């Protein structure tokens, strides 16, 4: 796994972790006991994992909410100001994003092409600002690179319409491809979010470290985690 952190005001930090194959499969469809062991090896805080549906639904976790009752909610992003839980997003090729503000509002987002087009980044930013966030910063997880992501037809046309032609790429084999990172960069700019770090690895190229559904039909998932350390 890779660790990263940044200050939140004077006395707290946001912690971001990007897992890889060596941390084990974090797909929510795995054996619950195995998952619990793997999660505990990464952090002993309760994990708020979501059933990701490639949409723009955002779960806001409020001070009095029972975490156990929210685990498994259908959503692609979670937002909180609490420091007693871990937010996470699982993926094989889709982008994942940790977001935070100096006020201590944090979020974890699952953002593949469908989620980006559905507006999950903007919906998350709006939820964070409604919770008191001012300046928003981002750390992005690994995703499939444009050189490996063959894409086309009506789906590509819809992405060009939603973003611009800069998201059209060429794969290593010369086919038309999609640059998910370019679409993500446009979304971050649109919603006034400053990307200050990330893991730029390609999940398809780096087979030793990451799972890829597109490249290898892997069913396993890595995760991006985000939480407040106080
Ligand atoms: Zn690649």
TrEMBL record:
Keywords: Hydrolase, Metal-binding, Transferase, Zinc. The keyword Coiled coil does not apply. Coiled coil: none annotated. It catalyses: inosine + phosphate = alpha-D-ribose 1-phosphate + hypoxanthine; S-methyl-5'-thioadenosine + phosphate = 5-(methylsulfanyl)-alpha-D-ribose 1-phosphate + adenine; adenosine + phosphate = alpha-D-ribose 1-phosphate + adenine; adenosine + H2O + H(+) = inosine + NH4(+). InterPro entries: Cu_polyphenol_OxRdtase, Cu_polyphenol_OxRdtase_sf, Cytotoxic_necrot_fac-like_cat. GO terms for molecular function: copper ion binding; hydrolase activity; S-methyl-5-thioadenosine phosphorylase activity. SUPFAM superfamilies: CNF1/YfiH-like putative cysteine hydrolases (SSF64438). Belongs to the purine nucleoside phosphorylase YfiH/LACC1 family. This is Unannotated protein. It comes from freshwater metagenome.
